[in-house]
Amino acid sequence: MNIQAMMKQAQKMQKDMLATKDEIDKMTFEGKSSFVTVEVNGKKELTNIKIDSENIEKDDIEMLQDMIIVAVNEAMKKVDMETEKKMGKYTQGMPGLF
User: Fold this and answer.
1) CB–CB of 52/64 below 8 Å?
2) In this structure, how many other beta carbons lie within 10 angstroms of the beta carbon of residue 44?
3) Alpha-carbon gap, residue 42 to 21, rounded angstroms
4) What is the CATH number of domain 19-88?
5) Sequence-ordered strand ranges (E) for 1-98
6) I need a surface site. Which of 8, 10, 51, 55 has the fewest CB within 10 A?
7) Read out DSSP for 46-95?
8) DSSP code of 44?
9) How far apart are CA 39 and CA 36, in angstroms?
10) What are phi and psi of 8, to 5 degrees?
11) CA-closest candidate to residue 45, choices 23, 73, 71, 67
12) Strands 28-33 and 36-41
């Protein structure tokens, strides 16, 4: 195989990987635990949370939901930063592989 054919194949693989990543980013994933249901997108961003509890006053539910979204998103970003920090030596400057 000549170098031009290898480069063309690498470019196609890169394009396919980006398309797949874009597809995943647009997906919605749901998680449930007891009376809590959350939705995250493929970018690991919490997009929705529902709390089904009769012990919480109606006025407090919306504020509680917003606070949980902020906290979970912050935690996910910390996971990404730590993963990049620790895995960076293996990816040799190619971020986003893990």
Assistant:
1) no
2) 14
3) 8
4) 3.30.1310
5) 28-33, 36-41, 46-51
6) 55
7) EEEEEE--TTS-HHHHHHHHHHHHHHHHHHHHHHHHHHHHHHHHHHTT-T
8) S
9) 10
10) -65, -40
11) 73
12) antiparallel
* pLDDT above 70: residue 92: no
| pLDDT tens digits, one per residue of 4-42 | 999 998 898 888 888 888 889 899 999 887 678 899 998
DSSP 8-state assignment for residue 52: -
**Residues contacting residue 38 through CB under 8 Å, at least 6 positions apart:** 30, 31, 32, 46, 48, 49, 50, 72
92 residue type, one letter: Q
- What tokens does 97 get? 């592989």
Residue 65 tokens, joined: 């939901």
Going from N- to C-terminal start, the domains of the chain cover 19-88
The first and second tokens of residue 2, run together, are 């000549």
